[in-house]
Write a structure and sequence with these properties.
The complex is a heterodimer of chains A (291) and B (311). Chain A has helices spanning 42-49, 70-73, 92-102, 108-116, 131-143, 161-175, 189-192, 213-219, 230-235, 257-260, 271-290; strands at residues 2-13, 16-27, 31-35, 56-61, 77-80, 149-153, 181-185, 198-203, 206-212, 220-225, 240-244, 247-253, 264-267. With 291 residues, chain A is of the alpha/beta class. Chain A has two domains: 2-204, Rossmann fold (3-Layer(aba) Sandwich); 216-290, no CATH class. In chain A, the strands form three sheets. In chain A, strands 5-6-7-3-8-9 form a six-stranded mixed beta sheet, with helices on both faces. In chain A, strands 11-12-10-13 form a four-stranded antiparallel beta sheet. In chain A, helix 6 (161-175) links the parallel strand 6 (149-153) and strand 7 (181-185). The longest helix of chain A is centred in the C-terminal third of the chain and has 20 residues, at 271-290. Chain B has one domain (26-307). Chain B has helices at 9-17, 26-39, 42-61, 65-72, 77-109, 113-116, 120-124, 130-170, 176-181, 184-201, 204-216, 221-240, 244-253, 278-283, 285-307. The chains are: A alpha/beta (291), B mainly alpha (311).
Chain lengths: 291, 311
């Protein structure tokens, strides 16, 4: 059974179209990165998946209708929306008690053992914790919940690099197993690249690219082209071209690597490079269409 | 402490094997209520503080208690009763005033603060329905505060009784007449009855209206709750030269409370609501209309919370 199954999901706010017919299928055991520019509809998509907003179209999350069954859905789904959502007045001990009280799948001892590895004290209030510690606390709560789907919306926003690295390490080592699914949105694309199993680019409410990371790696190639081969390389129709210290870097989509190797150094591009190429081209096309 | 090292996939498998603890439907309600009391500590601190202030005032008044009682020895029984009941009535009046204030303040914040501090996203990430959350919040004005007000008032009145007896004994006066003429049990029962009827059930539509607006307003919930009332009353006054609406709202809010009465049957107001006759109170259509309106406001608040996110 797919963990998330969306067909033609639409959401409009007044005249603004936030989601314009999204089709998405996420299988169990995958880590999906939802990448898009500001205002692309990432958060709207997550909110629809979490049952926080109504929408048009069909959407099933772990077999449930999120909008009408939010409270039951939350037994199987966890989310960290961004670091600021834990109530500032609550004490660490209170939040542990509360989650243990209301969540049937919460293992308090697991949360406590995770907290013991941090400097967070039980008696502290959330407002007294640093931003990084609040995220650690939230992560400790979420990791102790035996959920099927974990949704992360910019989970590491505003954290320093140590906390960010620790966050994803904990997630991969202590939490993720093949029966769980993680959906993450972030602008810090480079940090999640090695974490993801699947990738979706979203722009202006539409999914513009959806593939597994394996597919991504075989499909896209970035070549630092030697000047003498530039014309030959351009003939292969790169999807993007950029200049770096006098060298031309060309990005190819679905071009046989055997053809590329003679032209220069071939690498797998970063998600960020492909993102700029794909979203940038989309923007260019849209402008062209508007003219 | 080997749990640290085994926070690994195998322990995840183990915990999956254990059937998830079954959570009954009342447990989320209980925890949602605990949350309200953690978040809004003023709900119990304010009444306790007012009670303490009352006691300080009463301690000062004890200085002239013996002289007053000597004067009253020759007064007629009615006057005597009035005089000895006064501190008990003041205690009750203080506590009920606090109840109304705390309730109005709480209800105007009830569904607002979680949106303001964005924590609504956290609360909604847990398996607690909007219905349970709103019901837990409604428990504060309708169950927690009435019981707390009753309990604190009872304790205050008991302390007043003990202190006055001690002072009278110490100054060589008899406490027999004090104890025999004080209708302790009737007084307490009447007080509980009065709190529940006049201050919880009767003004219910006002409390629930405030809660509803607190879930809707982006800021200044109290203002948005009050403005329509003022507007309706104003239009009515200008258009029809009447003030039924204003009277209705005012009557709802303070439960038609008359100023403190002096005879025992009068300690708690009896006016058109006929407090002393539960049959009349429970049989009055306006009570049930009010409760129906209150329920409708609460239902709307539940529905509204479903759509609301952080502001």
């Amino acid at each position: 059974m797919a963990c998330i199954e969306a067909h033609g999901v639409r959401k409009t706010f007044g005249t603004t179209v936030a989601l314009d017919g999204v089709d998405l299928s996420v299988e169990e055991g995958h880590i999906l990165g939802l990448i898009g520019p500001n205002g692309a509809g990432k958060t709207t998509a997550l909110n629809a998946i979490l049952g926080l907003i109504p929408y048009q179209g069909q959407l099933r999350v772990v077999g449930r209708d999120p909008w009408n069954e939010r409270d039951q859905l939350m037994r199987d789904v966890c989310f960290i929306a961004d670091v600021a959502v834990l109530p500032r007045w609550i004490r660490v001990s209170q939040v542990l008690e509360y989650v243990a009280g209301v969540h049937p799948r919460f293992d308090r001892s697991k949360a406590e053992s995770f907290l013991r590895k941090t400097t967070i004290k039980h008696n502290t209030k959330v407002r007294e914790l640093s931003k990084g510690m609040v995220t650690q606390l939230h992560l400790a709560l979420v990791m102790a919940i035996d959920a099927k789907l974990l949704v992360l919306d910019e989970p590491t926003l505003g954290l320093d690099i140590l906390y960010r690295k620790q966050f994803y390490d904990s997630l991969l080592n202590d939490y993720f197993d093949r029966s769980r699914t993680i959906l993450v949105t972030t602008h810090q694309v480079e940090e999640v690249q090695h974490v993801l199993t699947d990738l979706v680019f979203i722009d202006r409410g539409r999914i513009v690219l959806g593939c597994s990371m394996e597919e991504f790696e075989s499909r896209y190639a970035e070549v630092t082209v030697r000047p003498e081969h530039l014309a030959a390389a351009r003939a292969l129709k790169p999807i993007y071209e950029s200049q770096l210290m006098g060298r031309s870097i060309l990005l190819f989509d679905r071009v046989d690597r055997q053809q590329l190797v003679p032209l220069g150094d071939v690498r797998t591009p970063s998600i960020a490079d492909v993102f700029v190429a794909v979203i940038g081209n989309q923007a260019g096309q849209a402008e062209g269409a508007a003219e | 402490m080997n749990s640290q090292s085994n926070a690994m996939p195998e322990s995840a498998l183990k915990s999956q094997a254990i059937a998830p603890a079954v959570i009954s439907s009342t447990r989320p309600l209980y925890w949602a209520l605990r949350r309200e009391l953690w978040e809004n500590r003023f709900v119990y601190i304010a009444p306790l503080a007012v009670g303490a202030v009352f006691l300080i005032g009463y301690l000062i008044s004890l200085a002239h208690l013996p002289a007053q009682m000597r004067r009253l020895l020759n007064a007629d029984p009615e006057q005597y009763r009035e005089a000895i009941l006064t501190p008990y009535n003041i205690a009750a009046a203080f506590m009920m005033g606090t109840y109304i204030l705390v309730t109005l303040f709480y209800c105007a914040e009830a569904l607002h603060s979680e949106r303001r501090d964005r924590s609504i996203l956290f609360w909604k990430s847990l398996p607690v329905s909007d219905l349970i959350t709103v019901l837990a919040k409604a428990t504060i004005p309708f169950i927690v505060l009435p019981l707390l007000t009753f309990a604190i008032t009872l304790v205050l009145q008991f302390i007043v009784l003990l202190l006055s007896s001690a002072v009278l004994l110490a100054s060589g006066l008899s406490v027999a007449s004090l104890w025999t003429r004080l209708p302790v049990v009737e007084m307490s029962l009447l007080m509980l009855y009065h709190i529940v009827t006049a201050h919880a059930l009767w003004p219910a539509p006002i409390y629930c209206w405030l809660m509803l607006v607190s879930g809707w307003a982006r800021r200044a919930a109290f203002l948005w709750a009050a403005l329509p009332l003022v507007a309706i009353a104003g239009v009515e006054k200008i258009a029809f030269h009447t003030q039924y609406f204003a009277t209705l709202v005012g009557y709802r809010l303070i439960g038609g409370s008359a100023p403190m009465g002096y005879a025992p049957t009068d300690i708690f107001p009896t006016d058109p609501m006929t407090h002393i006759m539960p049959g009349n109170f429970l049989g009055s259509p306006s009570l049930w209309i009010g409760l129906a309106i209150a329920a409708a406001f609460l239902a709307a608040a539940v529905r509204l919370r479903r759509y609301q996110g952080p502001i």
